[in-house]
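Interim report, section 4.2 (structural modelling).
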Amino acid sequence: MSIEARFQIDRGDFCLDVDVRFPGRGVSAVFGPSGSGKTTLLRAMAGLEKAAGSYLKVGDQVWQDETCFIAPHRRAVGYVFQEPSLFEHLDVRRNIAYGRKRVAPEARKVSLEHVIDLLGLGRLLARYPRQLSGGEQQRVAIARALATSPAVLLMDEPLASLDEARKDEILPYFESLHRELDIPMLYVSHSKDEVMRLGDHMVLLDKGRVLATGGVAEVFSSMDLPLAHAPDARSVIEGVVVAQDEEFGLSYVEFSGGRFAVANNGLVADESLVLGSTVRLLVRASDISVTLERASNTSVMNVFAATVAELAREGAAHVTVSLSVGAVAMIARITRKSATVLGLEPGMRVFVQIKSVALLR
Amino acid sequence: MMLNEQDMVALAISLKLAAITVLLLLLVGTPLAWWLARTRWRFKFLLEAVFALPLVLPPTVLGFYLLVVLGPRGAVGKAAEAMGAQPLAFTFAGLVVGSMVYSLPFVVQPLQAAFSALGRRPLEVAATLRASPLDRFLTVGVPLARSGFLTATVLGFAHTLGEFGVVLMIGGNIPGRTKVASIAIYDHVESLQYANAHALAGVMLLLSFLMLVVVYAANGRLNTVNP
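Predicted structure of the assembly:
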């Protein structure tokens, strides 16, 4: 199954004009600056915004086209709003059960106990929303949406209203949703960190239009898109934990271009870096340096053979270099002077030294 | 100081009138307030002004027009007569109709304010949780606006209890049928029966005060707009 969406919404000062297909599984991150139409897109999919000439098909069901418009309450969506928006007059259990009660019994695939477990709400069931922290409220809102066994889960910046500590508290729950439920999710965010951590597929929006769709790693490292040219450009690399070195506290993550050494001391790291698990690494463009020969006396452990794919000038002093490392694209930001001294040009064989690598998940 | 039997009857009529009026106003006023709170109709302000008229009109003006309309020669009166019913003027039913007009803003405005304060979000959430429009109204709109309902009920009740001018114009002063407490007090004063006036006025003062105490205590935390 997949989700096809075509929307043309004209609100005078803002236009949304998209024609996009989302995969029927995994997390599709909808990323873009504020005002790019992310929220409007989600609202339109839920039927909260009406517009003529729209088309939406989820799996084999058409939710709207020229002739039909399925009312919001007849769409099998789960919607998590930016603010938790719990019903203040209902306790946690009744909040979670609200939507589920209204779903036909034969369409209830997710049990109440399962969502309560999944989001760790067992001890909060008798509380009222005002007695919960922001993070807890948002977990209840997610559980409430999931309990309706939606065909698609729409999440509109669910972490935006939370502080950093609360975000870290919730992110692991998203990862377990991802692993345990077979519900496609659209995750709207303007945070690169969240998108890189949670997204499988990515839709890049700007000014109401789709700039690109594709895998997260691909979109972040594409030289044709603005992300690779941003001051905080970064690359995502997926690999498998193949070895561990307990003496030095390192794990080795293999990808098509070589083997990363990753320090085990991160907070999330220790649980994720299990032998055989697939992990996702983040490398910042400014943490990559390029050499013509493999340096032998260096403290940098992650050195890989690479081929220069493309160069782009950024202002007076810098260039962005796109490099192929195995089958992976990495983005490096170096000074223009260095690039000139090294004589970098597309097709050259070089080495990349990666000073630091972070574990995303 | 005890109330005499006639005053007890007048008080009972007042309470009955207030209760029936509020009940009917809640039935009519809730959908009206819901609509006013949610519509984007550009001429909504005109209707709002019409519904607020009883707040500012002298009760005698209101009563006069009601008398004209409800009386035997008025449109409603004629219609009632054609159907074989009594004209509404000088009947208890007439008092109910008059009171409903008179107290309408006191019921509709707190409800409208409470519904507006809800915003669209809780209802949108309910929609994404499969609740139909009526279901959303009943299970989310009404419970979340409960302080507005309390305010509307008490203000509507207390205001009807205190009405004088309209009743005098359209109700006449028929003991046991349309003579309400406020008019009984007026009659007592007219005939210099100050003790009786005191007793009845005291009861009314106490009742009104108690009702307002209930509202303000219950709404202490919630910010409701009262007319």
